[in-house]
Write a structure and sequence with these properties.
3 helices
Length: 89
């Protein structure tokens, strides 16, 4: 019975690693898209936006931090509840 439990636990941790990769991929995609949008905005409006560039940096920094915290909390929630539900079965 313990051997089966070890195999099941190994399977769940393997699936958790897959979910972690998906979460990190989602975060990378979000940051990439936001970086592209910021680049396009600044490249078109640099004469006007150059004076308050620091506000863009602060805003993007806050958005990335909030998204990272959200993604990490999703991973933590999945890790805490992966044995309670039949998510990976």
């Amino acid at each position: 019975m313990e051997k089966n439990n070890t195999a099941l636990e190994s399977k769940y941790h393997s699936k958790l690693n897959g979910d972690t990769a998906l979460i990190m991929g989602m975060l990378a995609l979000l940051i990439g898209v936001e970086g592209f949008v910021l680049y396009r905005i600044l490249s078109e409006t640099w004469e006007i936006a150059g004076n308050f560039f620091y506000l863009y940096v602060i805003f993007i920094g806050l958005m990335v931090a909030i998204e990272a915290i959200g993604c990490l909390s999703v991973r933590k929630s999945i890790k805490n509840h992966m044995f309670e539900f039949r998510y990976y079965d």
